[in-house]
Design goal:
The complex is a heterodimer of chains A (222) and B (262). Chain A is mainly alpha-helical. Chain A is 81% helix and 0% strand. Chain A has one domain: MetI-like fold (Orthogonal Bundle). Chain A is flat and about 75 Å long. With 262 residues, chain B is α/β, with parallel strands linked by helices. Chain B is built from 8 helices and 10 strands. In chain B, a hairpin with a 2-residue loop joins strand 1 and strand 2. Chain B is globular and about 55 Å long. Classes of the chains: A mainly alpha (222), B alpha/beta (262). Chains A and B meet through helix 5 and helix 6 of A and helix 2, strand 6, helix 3 and helix 5 of B.
Chain lengths: 222, 262
């Protein structure tokens, strides 16, 4: 129809791929910051804070990301809050990632053996000192493999942002296909590009997990 | 059985030095329907070494953990270095600066070197400078005979060495009383000796100590007083000599079942 796949199309796809990476970074950084707060809130000594954060996690985990994206873009627009596709996608992904990372990290913090908390308490460290100097350094070791693994999910899930008109890799592929109508070739390129982004991370995550498995017995004495 | 040396503890926050450093009076504690401590009373004077002995489940470890408030009591009174530990408003950080505790499983922080394990709390809690803390670390490690392990990580040490490092870590906070919760139970028999020797030296230096132990020979040699617990109660108490001439049938049976080896 509209000619053949040329360098301009590939450049356009490349630009989309960069936005996919950019949106993933926004989701990871924003979601990481909010998720860290969620993780701490989930184990707060205050019951109300624990309940509120647990509700947040349940609410987000029980809602499809697509619905959150629609709410953020079309929903807010309908009540008079016009947001750009980038802002809507960035905010929606941040909320989504925060719920999952918060829950992953809560588990990692709590999997630091209880005697470690007690030893820190017995040394008169404050709650903040216990967390920062004893628990978190150990929790981060435990959290690294599942966090890197989850980053793969984030990258793939950014493709959903195409539905609110954000031109990332998936959307740029659709646009190119609309002019060329070569779906097999184009979507194959898209698939390979996603794979090229995700596979190194998957490998890295597996490597980290294997290394963790070796180090686990050393993590804390019986 | 009531402790004959029991005295009314001082109610004021700043107890004069003649008062016991640790005193429990009629302490009750239940885990669900299980009554673990059923009216436990005993006191520890300054410089005294008290050994808590008894079968598994007799409540001795729980009693020890109540002293440092790792367990909250249901009723009764606990005074430790002037802190009313039974009260909900007790200042936990102040209490734990006065009380050192050493656990069965050492619980050294695996991500820190031995030196960092030791200097962490003195720097964070007492505000020592880095160089002051390092001097302190060398001093307490010399006390437990581990000077050369300053920069090792816990996983590079044997169990006995880890436990001695844990004792050094506690000592660095200069506690007024030390609690030992079955500190040799996780160790191979050939490694218990080096840990017990360190505790003996502490006793000789006049440290006030409460220890839960299964090492009857050790208890007999080091303890000024023995508290034998049975079914959540202080069943028999007295000088170390009660181990060789017990008056209750339960203690007779306990020391008679091969527990007493010296």
């Amino acid at each position: 129809m509209g000619g053949h796949l040329n360098i301009n199309h590939l450049m356009f796809l490349g630009q989309g791929a960069l936005w996919t990476i950019g949106l993933s970074a926004i989701a990871l950084i924003g979601g990481g910051i909010v998720g860290f707060v969620i993780a701490l809130a989930r184990i707060s000594p205050l019951k109300s804070v624990r309940i509120a954060s647990a509700l947040y996690v349940q609410l987000i985990q029980g809602t499809p990301l697509l619905v959150i994206l629609f709410l953020g873009y079309f929903g807010l627009a309908a009540i008079g809050l016009q947001v750009s596709p980038l802002a809507a996608a960035g905010a929606s992904l941040t909320l989504y990632v925060a719920a999952y990372l918060g829950e992953i990290w809560r588990g990692c913090i709590q999997s630091v053996p209880k005697p470690q908390w007690e030893a820190a308490e017995g040394l008169a460290l404050s709650r903040t000192q216990r967390m920062m100097k004893v628990i978190l350094p150990q929790a981060i070791r435990i959290a690294t493999p599942p966090t890197v693994g989850f980053m793969v999910q984030i990258i793939k899930n950014t493709s959903l942002a195409s539905v609110v008109g954000f031109v990332e890799l998936m959307r740029s592929g659709q646009i190119v296909n609309n002019s060329l109508f070569e779906p097999f070739a184009i979507y194959a390129i898209i698939a390979v590009t996603y794979f090229a982004m995700c596979y190194p991370l998957s490998l890295f995550s597996q490597r980290l997990e294997r290394r963790m498995g070796r180090g686990r017995s050393n993590l804390a004495p019986a | 059985m009531a402790d004959p040396t029991w005295r009314q503890p001082d109610m004021q926050q700043n107890a004069p030095s003649s008062e016991p450093i640790v005193s429990l009076r009629n302490v009750q504690k239940s885990f669900g329907p299980l009554r673990v401590l059923d009216g436990v009373s005993f006191a520890v004077e300054r410089g005294e070494v008290l050994a808590l002995i008894g079968r598994s489940g007799s409540g001795k470890s729980t009693a020890l953990r109540c002293i440092d408030r790792f367990e909250k009591v249901d009723a009764g009174e606990i005074v430790v270095c002037g802190h009313r530990v039974d009260r909900p408003d007790v200042n936990l950080r102040a209490l734990r600066q006065d009380v050192g505790i050493v656990f069965q499983s050492y619980n050294l922080f695996p991500h820190l070197t031995i030196e960092q394990n030791i200097t962490l709390a003195p720097c964070a809690v007492k505000g020592l400078s880095g160089s002051q803390a390092k001097d302190l670390a060398q001093k307490v490690l010399a006390q437990v005979g581990l000077e050369e392990k300053l920069h090792a990580y816990p996983e590079q040490l044997s169990g006995g060495q880890q436990q001695r490092a844990a004792i050094a870590r506690s000592l660095a906070m200069q506690p007024k009383v030390m609690l030992f919760d079955e500190v040799t139970s996780a160790l191979d028999p050939e490694l218990t000796g080096e840990v017990l020797k360190v505790i003996e030296q502490l006793a000789a230096d006049g440290m006030t100590m409460v220890m839960v132990t299964h090492e009857m020979g050790f208890a007999k040699g080091i303890a000024d007083r023995i508290v034998f617990m049975h079914r959540g109660k202080v069943h028999e108490t007295g000088a170390a000599s009660i181990l060789t001439s017990p008056t209750t049938p339960e203690l007779t049976q306990f020391v008679g079942t091969g527990n007493l080896k010296s």
